[in-house]
């Protein structure tokens, strides 16, 4: 494996985008830009942008704190303030960060919210999280957007109508009031036009894992790829550029028959192709990833990269129906799909991307993902006769990351994959 | 039945009958009768009643069901109740059930609905998405649509059309049911020694598994019996128990709290039975709308409802004052995000207003109460000593 990692142009663009956003946020109070706190799944960033406001994603802050090894102290601080050990650690990490001055990943202070946009999609904890934030920032208005769950495997016209009414009567009026700007549908449409270009690129990018070797890792590197769409850039010209540049780079890798880039350079031999369900661990992200690339395991699809929107089942925004599109986008996020839909989607990924195995990284914090995962595993095992593996960790609480435990489990899983391969070759 | 002890014993038997014998019997007595299971917290059972159905509360296996298969479906850090519900399903306890309702209260219940779909339980499985928007023409319209979906499912099974007359009648029966429970709670909070909290719990819980008409008779008898003096007050503090609205505490835990020096004068154990505060209108041509409106404007506060503009800590305080509570016990199931994420908010309010509280976790099959007994005992003693 080559140790030289040169930065690709897409990485540079992404870094500039994120740094620029945090810079803008740090001066928001002086520039008068209004700040909206919201969540990744069902993030209607196009609407926020159309009002000229800036988004902040507490989950992203939490994961960044995890990666920067700050989460442990933050979580402890929240627990000292009465939060239980048993609940989602993202919430505690975020509360702890706020209690410590709300310093963001770039070392700059993140401004307090002017609006709490509780667009809750696929997770109830979001409700509780914002009830907590509402008390930390008294007087800040809350705009609640309830996304109905796809319980009957579909989106009905009534579900869309309910969401559109909430947008019109709850969310937009509050945005108008906070930003001082009127709702501008034409502006929203033009932002959505960019979103639809981004969606196409995302699909194409994650579809390149069909190749052997796969030119990308759709989990560990995938989380970087979805960074811009999940942090407020969907619908911006920068996002359009970023994704077309990224796609170009990936095509070059395919031409050269190169495997994915890892923190230690190019992965040279692709030995196992996996589909992974569940979020990653952030506190030991590099070590975690290394356990895979050292074994030549590449992730060809992951559910986590679909948390901020599922595009591979045909959904696309329609700029001519902007509010309906935002509603359907929210309803189509991964954790808003019912268990059967999630199983079907994973099954499609396993088949389409010729995976050798299916792995669950079960997150202690996250009932939204975790409850039902064991059943998904059983279903896939039965239906596709594919080896399945199971590991447990947490998003940002290092107390729940046991390196040796995960390593042992992964080694047995890879052995199982190896044996199966030998049997299949013999047959 | 005219003896409180007998009534309570019968209710206890009914409440923990995991074979749902009474519901099966009831169903067998009519061709177009349906039985629909519903999970906590709240579900408007009136609509099932009006469709010639019996809504049966599914509250887990408690400490009565050994978990053998359920653990293979849930990781260790997920609350206990869904694994006992899966165990019950796999052991065919719900064989005669026609459908299941999963009210939206958390991600575990939500995903459990998907597991029931995959397991093919019942003839329909409905996740009921309670609106978080409380405007009639926004959240109300959506909620009404959700309720209509349930009615459509039942109509497909038994062909019973729910007329306004039928639904108004059913609403009336459930109004009476809630009113009787409220009267018992009110009376008991004045004279808590007349009936233990565990006994009251069994009486209310029995109503989850039998026809409302029968439960109303039981409640009327209980109310009458409680009106007469019985027993004598003891030197106990008055507590409110909070956080136990979904996975139920074992009856032993409720008893332990009272044995350790407390009278439980308010709780959220079976909150669904008291969810709507007051009556639902029975005089309209559009009773489904009346049920919808009642949800929008007469719901109690709970961890499953976002409280924009109506902070739950203020509502808790009001309850504390109304019930003349000396202290609060925050008792939540382990790993219950909704309950546990509320606790810092509610506890801060208690701290600010100098209301004493303690908190602990339980699971429905907790069998050892020694530590809890000591904790509650110390709590009660400290309040008696210092207040
Ligand atoms: S429970 Fe899961 S989806 Fe919800 S906030 Fe926590 S980590 Fe995110
Ligand atoms: S006990 Fe809590 S976490 Fe478990 S199903 Fe009930 S509400 Fe959800």
Can you tell me about this structure?
The complex is a heterodimer of chains A (427) and B (387). The two termini of chain A are 32 Å apart. Chain A has 18 helices and ten strands. In chain A, helix 4 (58-67) crosses helix 6, helix 9 (185-207) runs parallel beside helix 12 and helix 15 crosses helix 17. In chain A, the strands form three sheets. Chain A has a four-stranded parallel β-sheet, with helices on both faces. In chain A, strands 8-7-9-10 form a four-stranded parallel β-sheet, with helices on both faces. Chain A is globular. Helix content of chain A is 51%, strand content 11%. By secondary structure, chain A is an alpha/beta fold. With 387 residues, chain B is an alpha/beta fold. Chain B has a domain at 22-160: Rossmann fold (3-Layer(aba) Sandwich). Chain B has helices at residues 4-15, 21-28, 46-50, 81-90, 107-119, 136-158, 164-190, 197-206, 212-227, 251-259, 287-298, 312-322, 337-352, 370-386, and strands at 34-38, 53-57, 99-103, 124-128, 237-242, 262-267, 327-333, 356-362. In chain B, the strands form two sheets. In chain B, strands 2-1-3-4 form a four-stranded parallel β-sheet, sandwiched between helices. Chain B has a four-stranded parallel β-sheet with strand order 6-5-7-8, with helices on both faces. In chain B, strand 7 (327-333), helix 13 and strand 8 form a beta-alpha-beta unit. Chain B is globular. Chain B starts with a helix and ends with a helix. The mean pLDDT of chain B is 96. Chains A and B meet through helix 7, strand 4, helix 8, helix 15 and helix 16 of A and helix 5, helix 6 and helix 13 of B. The complex binds iron/sulfur cluster (2 copies). Residues 59, 88, 90, 123, 125-126, 365-369, 395 of chain A line the site of one iron/sulfur cluster.
Question: Mind sketching the topology for me?
Answer:
The complex is a heterodimer of chains A (427) and B (387).
Chain A: H1 9-26, H2 28-31, E1 35-37, H3 45-50, E2 54-56, H4 58-67, H5 71-80, H6 89-99, E3 115-120, H7 125-136, E4 142-146, H8 157-179, H9 185-207, H10 222-225, H11 227-230, H12 237-255, E5 261-262, E6 265-266, E7 272-277, H13 285-293, E8 297-302, H14 322-331, H15 339-352, E9 357-363, H16 367-370, H17 373-384, E10 388-393, H18 403-426
Parallel strand pairs in A: 1-2, 1-3, 3-4, 7-8, 7-9, 9-10
Antiparallel strand pairs in A: 5-6
Chain B: H1 4-15, H2 21-28, E1 34-38, H3 46-50, E2 53-57, H4 81-90, E3 99-103, H5 107-119, E4 124-128, H6 136-158, H7 164-190, H8 197-206, H9 212-227, E5 237-242, H10 251-259, E6 262-267, H11 287-298, H12 312-322, E7 327-333, H13 337-352, E8 356-362, H14 370-386
Parallel strand pairs in B: 1-2, 1-3, 3-4, 5-6, 5-7, 7-8
Helix pairs in contact in B: 1-8, 6-11, 7-9, 8-10, 10-14, 12-13
One iron/sulfur cluster (SF4) is lined by residues 59, 88, 90, 123, 125-126, 365-369, 395 of chain A.
């Amino acid at each position: 494996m080559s140790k030289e990692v040169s930065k690709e142009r897409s990485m540079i663009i992404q870094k500039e985008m994120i740094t620029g956003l945090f810079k803008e946020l740090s001066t928001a109070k002086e520039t008068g830009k209004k700040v909206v706190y919201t969540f990744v799944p069902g993030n209607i960033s196009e609407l926020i942008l159309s009002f000229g406001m800036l988004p902040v994603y507490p989950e992203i802050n939490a994961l960044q704190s995890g990666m920067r090894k700050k989460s442990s102290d933050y979580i402890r601080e929240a627990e000292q303030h009465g939060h239980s050990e048993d609940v989602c650690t993202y919430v505690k990490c975020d509360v702890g960060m706020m209690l410590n001055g709300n310093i963001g990943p770039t070392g700059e202070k993140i401004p307090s919210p002017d609006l709490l946009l509780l667009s809750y999609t696929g997770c109830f904890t979001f409700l509780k999280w914002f009830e907590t934030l509402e008390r930390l920032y008294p007087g800040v208005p809350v705009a609640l957007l309830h996304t109905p769950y796809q319980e009957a495997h579909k989106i009905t016209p009534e579900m869309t109508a309910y969401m559109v009414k909430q947008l019109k009567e709850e969310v937009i009026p509050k945005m108008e009031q906070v930003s001082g700007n009127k709702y501008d549908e034409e502006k929203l449409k033009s932002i959505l036009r960019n979103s639809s270009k981004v969606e196409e690129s995302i699909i194409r990018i994650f579809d390149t894992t069909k190749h052997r070797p796969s030119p990308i890792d759709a989990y560990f590197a995938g989380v970087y790829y979805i960074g811009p769409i999940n942090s407020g850039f969907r619908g911006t010209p920068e996002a359009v550029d970023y994704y077309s540049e990224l796609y170009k780079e990936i095509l070059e890798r395919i031409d050269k028959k190169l495997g994915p880039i890892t923190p230690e350079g190019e992965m040279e031999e692709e030995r196992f192709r996996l589909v992974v369900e569940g979020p990653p661990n952030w506190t030991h992200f590099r070590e975690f990833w290394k356990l895979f690339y050292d074994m030549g395991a590449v992730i060809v699809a992951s559910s986590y990269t679909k948390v901020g929107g599922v595009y591979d089942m045909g959904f696309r925004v329609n700029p001519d129906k902007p509010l309906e599109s935002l509603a359907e986008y929210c309803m189509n996020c991964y954790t808003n799909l019912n268990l059967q839909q999630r199983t079907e989607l994973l099954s499609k990924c396993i088949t389409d991307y010729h995976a050798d195995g299916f792995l669950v990284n079960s997150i202690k914090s996250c009932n939204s993902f975790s409850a039902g995962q064991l059943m998904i595993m059983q279903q896939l095992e039965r239906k596709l006769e594919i080896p399945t593996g199971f590991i447990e960790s947490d998003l940002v609480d290092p107390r729940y990351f046991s390196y040796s435990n995960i390593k042992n489990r992964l080694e047995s899983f890879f052995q199982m994959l190896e044996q199966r391969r030998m049997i299949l070759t013999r047959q | 039945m005219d003896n409180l002890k007998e009534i309570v014993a019968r209710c206890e038997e009914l409440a923990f009958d995991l074979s749902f014998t009474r519901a099966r019997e009831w169903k067998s007595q009519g061709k177009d009768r349906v039985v629909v299971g519903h999970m906590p917290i709240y579900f408007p059972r009136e609509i099932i009643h009006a469709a010639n159905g019996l809504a049966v509360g599914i509250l887990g296996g408690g400490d009565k069901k050994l978990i053998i298969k359920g653990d293979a479906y849930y990781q260790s850090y997920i609350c206990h109740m869904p694994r006992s519900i899966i165990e019950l399903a796999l052991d065919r306890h719900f064989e005669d059930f026609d459908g299941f309702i999963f009210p939206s209260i958390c991600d575990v219940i939500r995903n459990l609905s998907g597991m029931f779909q995959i397991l093919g339980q019942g003839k329909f499985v409905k996740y009921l998405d309670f609106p978080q928007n409380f405007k009639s023409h926004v959240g109300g319209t959506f909620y009404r649509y959700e309720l209509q979906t349930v009615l459509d499912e039942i109509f497909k099974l038994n062909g019973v059309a729910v007329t306004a007359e039928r639904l108004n009648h059913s609403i009336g029966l459930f109004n009476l049911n809630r009113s009787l429970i409220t009267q018992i709670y009110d009376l008991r909070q004045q004279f808590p020694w007349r009936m233990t909290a565990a006994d009251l719990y069994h009486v209310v819980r029995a109503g989850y598994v039998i026809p409302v008409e029968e439960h109303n008779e039981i409640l009327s008898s209980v109310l009458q019996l409680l009106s007469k003096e019985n027993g004598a007050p003891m030197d106990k503090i008055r507590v409110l128990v909070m956080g136990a609205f979904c996975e139920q505490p074992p009856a032993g835990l409720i008893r332990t709290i009272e044995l350790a020096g407390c009278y439980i004068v308010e709780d959220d154990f079976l909150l669904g039975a008291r969810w709507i505060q007051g009556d639902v209108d029975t005089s309209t041509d559009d009773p489904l709308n009346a049920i919808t409106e009642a949800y929008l404007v007469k719901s109690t506060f709970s961890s499953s409802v976002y409280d924009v503009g109506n902070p739950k800590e203020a509502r808790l305080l009001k309850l504390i004052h109304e019930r003349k509570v000396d202290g609060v016990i925050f008792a939540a199931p382990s790993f219950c995000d909704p309950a546990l994420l509320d606790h810092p908010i509610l506890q801060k309010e208690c701290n600010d207003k100098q209301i004493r509280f303690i908190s602990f976790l339980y699971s429905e099959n907790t069998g050892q109460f020694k530590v809890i007994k000591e904790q509650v005992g110390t709590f009660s003693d400290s309040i008696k000593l210092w207040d």
